[in-house]
Design brief:
The chain is α/β, with parallel strands linked by helices. It has three domains: 1-73, Winged helix-like DNA-binding domain superfamily/Winged helix DNA-binding domain (Arc Repressor Mutant, subunit A), CATH 1.10.10.10; 83-163 and 266-291, 3-Layer(aba) Sandwich (D-Maltodextrin-Binding Protein, domain 2); 165-263, D-Maltodextrin-Binding Protein, domain 2. It contains ten helices and twelve strands. α1 (3-15) packs across α2 (18-25) and α5 (105-115) packs antiparallel against α10 (280-289). 29% of the residues are buried.
Length: 291
Protein backbone atom coordinates (compact mmCIF):
# COMPACT_ATOMS: atom_id res chain seq x y z
CA UNK A 1 0.00 0.00 0.00
CA UNK A 2 1.06 3.62 -0.43
CA UNK A 3 0.13 7.02 0.93
CA UNK A 4 -1.94 7.87 -2.17
CA UNK A 5 -4.16 4.83 -1.64
CA UNK A 6 -4.63 5.73 2.02
CA UNK A 7 -5.44 9.33 1.12
CA UNK A 8 -8.07 8.15 -1.36
CA UNK A 9 -9.49 5.70 1.17
CA UNK A 10 -9.78 8.43 3.86
CA UNK A 11 -11.42 10.86 1.44
CA UNK A 12 -14.03 8.27 0.44
CA UNK A 13 -14.70 7.58 4.12
CA UNK A 14 -15.25 11.33 4.60
CA UNK A 15 -17.44 11.98 1.54
CA UNK A 16 -19.20 8.59 1.45
CA UNK A 17 -18.84 8.71 -2.32
CA UNK A 18 -16.21 7.43 -4.77
CA UNK A 19 -16.93 10.07 -7.41
CA UNK A 20 -16.84 12.98 -4.95
CA UNK A 21 -13.55 11.74 -3.49
CA UNK A 22 -12.05 11.49 -6.98
CA UNK A 23 -13.18 14.99 -7.90
CA UNK A 24 -11.63 16.46 -4.75
CA UNK A 25 -8.34 14.59 -5.22
CA UNK A 26 -8.22 15.10 -8.99
CA UNK A 27 -8.49 11.40 -9.88
CA UNK A 28 -10.71 9.70 -12.44
CA UNK A 29 -13.27 7.35 -10.88
CA UNK A 30 -11.50 4.39 -12.45
CA UNK A 31 -8.30 5.38 -10.62
CA UNK A 32 -10.17 5.66 -7.31
CA UNK A 33 -11.76 2.25 -7.81
CA UNK A 34 -8.40 0.69 -8.69
CA UNK A 35 -6.69 2.16 -5.63
CA UNK A 36 -9.34 0.79 -3.26
CA UNK A 37 -9.32 -2.60 -5.00
CA UNK A 38 -5.53 -2.77 -4.56
CA UNK A 39 -5.87 -1.93 -0.89
CA UNK A 40 -8.58 -4.53 -0.36
CA UNK A 41 -6.57 -7.19 -2.21
CA UNK A 42 -3.45 -6.45 -0.17
CA UNK A 43 -5.31 -6.51 3.15
CA UNK A 44 -7.53 -9.44 2.18
CA UNK A 45 -10.78 -7.81 3.25
CA UNK A 46 -13.52 -5.45 2.06
CA UNK A 47 -13.19 -1.87 3.24
CA UNK A 48 -16.59 -0.58 2.09
CA UNK A 49 -20.07 -2.04 1.86
CA UNK A 50 -21.90 -0.84 -1.23
CA UNK A 51 -25.56 -0.28 -0.32
CA UNK A 52 -27.22 0.84 -3.54
CA UNK A 53 -25.90 4.33 -4.29
CA UNK A 54 -24.44 4.80 -0.79
CA UNK A 55 -21.39 3.26 0.84
CA UNK A 56 -20.41 2.62 4.46
CA UNK A 57 -17.18 1.48 6.08
CA UNK A 58 -16.97 -2.17 7.03
CA UNK A 59 -15.63 -3.13 10.45
CA UNK A 60 -12.21 -3.63 8.83
CA UNK A 61 -12.52 -0.25 7.11
CA UNK A 62 -13.25 1.44 10.45
CA UNK A 63 -10.07 -0.05 11.88
CA UNK A 64 -8.00 1.00 8.88
CA UNK A 65 -9.32 4.59 9.01
CA UNK A 66 -7.58 5.32 12.32
CA UNK A 67 -4.23 4.15 10.92
CA UNK A 68 -4.75 5.99 7.63
CA UNK A 69 -5.46 9.27 9.42
CA UNK A 70 -2.29 8.87 11.50
CA UNK A 71 -0.24 8.21 8.35
CA UNK A 72 -1.70 11.27 6.66
CA UNK A 73 -0.97 13.36 9.75
CA UNK A 74 2.66 12.20 9.60
CA UNK A 75 2.74 13.23 5.94
CA UNK A 76 1.50 16.72 6.89
CA UNK A 77 4.13 16.97 9.63
CA UNK A 78 6.89 15.96 7.20
CA UNK A 79 5.99 18.78 4.82
CA UNK A 80 5.71 21.24 7.72
CA UNK A 81 9.02 20.29 9.33
CA UNK A 82 11.51 18.73 6.91
CA UNK A 83 11.96 21.33 4.11
CA UNK A 84 14.70 23.81 4.97
CA UNK A 85 12.70 26.87 3.88
CA UNK A 86 12.58 29.61 6.49
CA UNK A 87 8.87 30.04 5.81
CA UNK A 88 6.52 27.31 7.14
CA UNK A 89 4.58 25.39 4.53
CA UNK A 90 2.20 22.45 4.44
CA UNK A 91 -1.25 21.63 5.84
CA UNK A 92 -2.76 22.13 9.32
CA UNK A 93 -6.07 20.42 10.09
CA UNK A 94 -7.79 22.67 12.61
CA UNK A 95 -10.94 21.71 14.48
CA UNK A 96 -12.91 24.68 15.80
CA UNK A 97 -16.09 25.34 17.75
CA UNK A 98 -18.45 27.22 15.46
CA UNK A 99 -19.15 29.91 18.07
CA UNK A 100 -15.51 31.02 18.07
CA UNK A 101 -15.96 32.19 14.48
CA UNK A 102 -18.05 35.08 15.85
CA UNK A 103 -15.01 36.35 17.74
CA UNK A 104 -11.61 37.43 16.45
CA UNK A 105 -10.84 34.18 14.62
CA UNK A 106 -11.58 35.32 11.02
CA UNK A 107 -9.22 38.30 11.43
CA UNK A 108 -6.51 36.09 12.93
CA UNK A 109 -6.91 33.59 10.09
CA UNK A 110 -6.56 36.31 7.47
CA UNK A 111 -3.47 37.70 9.20
CA UNK A 112 -1.92 34.23 9.42
CA UNK A 113 -2.57 33.45 5.75
CA UNK A 114 -1.00 36.73 4.68
CA UNK A 115 2.11 36.04 6.77
CA UNK A 116 2.40 32.31 5.99
CA UNK A 117 0.91 31.94 2.52
CA UNK A 118 2.42 28.47 2.03
CA UNK A 119 0.47 26.98 4.95
CA UNK A 120 -2.98 25.63 4.11
CA UNK A 121 -5.27 25.65 7.16
CA UNK A 122 -8.14 23.20 6.66
CA UNK A 123 -10.98 24.03 9.03
CA UNK A 124 -13.54 21.58 10.39
CA UNK A 125 -16.33 22.37 12.85
CA UNK A 126 -16.26 20.06 15.86
CA UNK A 127 -18.32 19.01 18.85
CA UNK A 128 -17.21 18.19 22.36
CA UNK A 129 -18.00 14.49 22.14
CA UNK A 130 -15.96 13.56 19.07
CA UNK A 131 -12.91 15.81 18.80
CA UNK A 132 -10.69 13.94 21.36
CA UNK A 133 -10.82 10.81 19.21
CA UNK A 134 -10.14 12.86 16.08
CA UNK A 135 -6.99 14.28 17.70
CA UNK A 136 -5.94 10.80 18.78
CA UNK A 137 -6.48 9.34 15.30
CA UNK A 138 -4.64 12.18 13.59
CA UNK A 139 -7.73 13.47 11.76
CA UNK A 140 -7.04 16.83 13.43
CA UNK A 141 -3.72 18.49 14.32
CA UNK A 142 -5.06 21.21 16.61
CA UNK A 143 -8.40 22.01 18.26
CA UNK A 144 -9.70 25.49 19.16
CA UNK A 145 -12.78 24.93 21.28
CA UNK A 146 -15.21 26.85 23.49
CA UNK A 147 -16.28 24.71 26.43
CA UNK A 148 -16.07 24.21 30.16
CA UNK A 149 -12.46 23.45 31.03
CA UNK A 150 -11.63 20.11 29.40
CA UNK A 151 -9.84 17.51 31.49
CA UNK A 152 -8.61 14.50 29.53
CA UNK A 153 -5.43 12.56 30.28
CA UNK A 154 -4.86 11.95 26.57
CA UNK A 155 -5.02 15.64 25.64
CA UNK A 156 -2.67 18.56 26.20
CA UNK A 157 -4.12 22.01 26.93
CA UNK A 158 -1.80 24.56 25.30
CA UNK A 159 -3.64 27.75 26.17
CA UNK A 160 -6.93 28.86 27.71
CA UNK A 161 -8.87 32.12 28.02
CA UNK A 162 -11.91 32.82 30.19
CA UNK A 163 -15.06 33.53 28.20
CA UNK A 164 -18.67 34.23 29.24
CA UNK A 165 -22.14 32.82 28.76
CA UNK A 166 -24.99 35.33 28.97
CA UNK A 167 -28.74 35.78 28.64
CA UNK A 168 -30.08 37.91 25.80
CA UNK A 169 -33.54 39.31 25.16
CA UNK A 170 -35.25 42.05 23.21
CA UNK A 171 -34.90 45.48 24.85
CA UNK A 172 -38.71 45.37 25.08
CA UNK A 173 -38.68 42.16 27.14
CA UNK A 174 -39.74 42.63 30.81
CA UNK A 175 -36.51 41.05 32.09
CA UNK A 176 -34.47 43.66 30.23
CA UNK A 177 -35.87 46.29 32.60
CA UNK A 178 -34.71 44.56 35.79
CA UNK A 179 -31.61 45.74 37.65
CA UNK A 180 -30.69 42.10 38.31
CA UNK A 181 -31.88 38.71 37.08
CA UNK A 182 -31.49 35.37 38.89
CA UNK A 183 -32.68 31.82 38.38
CA UNK A 184 -36.03 32.52 40.07
CA UNK A 185 -36.79 35.22 37.47
CA UNK A 186 -36.59 32.57 34.73
CA UNK A 187 -39.53 30.57 36.13
CA UNK A 188 -42.12 30.35 33.34
CA UNK A 189 -40.00 32.37 30.89
CA UNK A 190 -39.60 30.76 27.42
CA UNK A 191 -35.92 29.82 27.06
CA UNK A 192 -34.05 29.67 23.76
CA UNK A 193 -31.27 27.12 24.17
CA UNK A 194 -28.51 25.44 22.21
CA UNK A 195 -28.90 21.80 21.13
CA UNK A 196 -29.22 18.75 23.37
CA UNK A 197 -25.56 17.78 22.99
CA UNK A 198 -24.28 21.23 23.93
CA UNK A 199 -22.56 21.73 27.28
CA UNK A 200 -23.95 25.27 27.60
CA UNK A 201 -27.50 23.94 27.71
CA UNK A 202 -26.59 21.26 30.27
CA UNK A 203 -24.88 23.83 32.53
CA UNK A 204 -28.00 26.03 32.63
CA UNK A 205 -30.49 23.20 33.14
CA UNK A 206 -28.39 21.74 35.98
CA UNK A 207 -28.27 25.16 37.63
CA UNK A 208 -32.04 25.66 37.33
CA UNK A 209 -32.66 22.18 38.75
CA UNK A 210 -30.39 22.92 41.71
CA UNK A 211 -32.34 26.15 42.35
CA UNK A 212 -35.72 24.43 42.09
CA UNK A 213 -36.71 26.25 38.90
CA UNK A 214 -38.65 24.34 36.24
CA UNK A 215 -37.40 25.46 32.80
CA UNK A 216 -39.75 26.32 29.96
CA UNK A 217 -37.75 25.39 26.86
CA UNK A 218 -39.26 27.11 23.83
CA UNK A 219 -36.49 26.31 21.34
CA UNK A 220 -33.43 24.09 21.03
CA UNK A 221 -31.09 24.61 18.08
CA UNK A 222 -27.41 24.49 17.26
CA UNK A 223 -27.81 27.71 15.24
CA UNK A 224 -26.91 30.85 17.18
CA UNK A 225 -28.43 32.92 14.37
CA UNK A 226 -31.83 31.31 14.94
CA UNK A 227 -31.53 31.80 18.72
CA UNK A 228 -30.82 35.49 18.20
CA UNK A 229 -33.68 36.00 15.75
CA UNK A 230 -36.16 34.38 18.14
CA UNK A 231 -34.91 36.59 20.97
CA UNK A 232 -35.04 39.74 18.83
CA UNK A 233 -38.66 38.94 18.00
CA UNK A 234 -39.57 38.58 21.69
CA UNK A 235 -40.13 34.84 21.52
CA UNK A 236 -37.99 34.14 24.56
CA UNK A 237 -34.67 34.64 26.33
CA UNK A 238 -31.59 33.31 24.58
CA UNK A 239 -28.70 31.69 26.49
CA UNK A 240 -25.46 31.65 24.53
CA UNK A 241 -21.81 32.77 24.56
CA UNK A 242 -21.45 36.53 24.88
CA UNK A 243 -19.25 36.71 21.77
CA UNK A 244 -22.10 35.40 19.60
CA UNK A 245 -24.30 38.46 20.14
CA UNK A 246 -21.82 41.35 20.22
CA UNK A 247 -23.14 43.00 17.04
CA UNK A 248 -26.81 42.65 17.99
CA UNK A 249 -26.16 44.28 21.38
CA UNK A 250 -24.25 47.15 19.73
CA UNK A 251 -27.15 47.66 17.32
CA UNK A 252 -29.58 47.53 20.28
CA UNK A 253 -31.50 44.66 18.75
CA UNK A 254 -30.72 42.60 21.85
CA UNK A 255 -30.07 43.43 25.46
CA UNK A 256 -27.69 41.47 27.71
CA UNK A 257 -29.59 40.75 30.93
CA UNK A 258 -28.02 41.78 34.24
CA UNK A 259 -27.47 38.23 35.44
CA UNK A 260 -26.73 37.83 39.15
CA UNK A 261 -27.27 34.10 39.45
CA UNK A 262 -24.67 31.33 39.44
CA UNK A 263 -21.63 31.64 37.21
CA UNK A 264 -21.14 29.47 34.11
CA UNK A 265 -17.36 29.16 33.59
CA UNK A 266 -16.33 28.47 30.00
CA UNK A 267 -13.01 28.89 28.22
CA UNK A 268 -11.68 29.17 24.72
CA UNK A 269 -9.01 26.45 24.63
CA UNK A 270 -6.23 25.31 22.33
CA UNK A 271 -5.70 21.57 22.54
CA UNK A 272 -3.46 18.94 20.92
CA UNK A 273 -3.00 15.24 21.49
CA UNK A 274 -0.69 14.56 24.41
CA UNK A 275 2.94 14.17 23.39
CA UNK A 276 2.45 15.76 19.97
CA UNK A 277 5.40 17.86 18.87
CA UNK A 278 4.29 21.27 17.63
CA UNK A 279 5.57 22.26 14.21
CA UNK A 280 6.60 25.88 13.72
CA UNK A 281 3.46 26.46 11.66
CA UNK A 282 1.20 25.21 14.48
CA UNK A 283 3.21 27.14 17.08
CA UNK A 284 2.78 30.37 15.11
CA UNK A 285 -0.97 29.77 14.78
CA UNK A 286 -1.23 29.14 18.53
CA UNK A 287 0.56 32.40 19.29
CA UNK A 288 -1.75 34.38 17.03
CA UNK A 289 -4.94 32.82 18.41
CA UNK A 290 -3.91 33.36 22.03
CA UNK A 291 -1.08 35.92 22.19
Amino acid sequence: MNIFQLETFAKIAETKNFTSAGNILGYAQSTVTTQIKQLEDELGCLLFDRLGKSIVLTEEGERLLGYAEKMLQLKREIFLEVPSSKEPSGVIKLGISETLCYDNFPKVLLKYRKKYSKVNIQIQFINHATFPQMLKNGALDLVYTLNPLIENDELCLLEKKREHLAFFASPKHPLSKLESVTEKDLEGVPLLLTGRNCNFRHMLLEDLKKRGVTPTVALETSSKEILKQFAINQLGVGFMPEMAAVNEVKEKKLCRLNWRGDDFPIYSQLIVYKGKRLSRAVEELKNMLMP
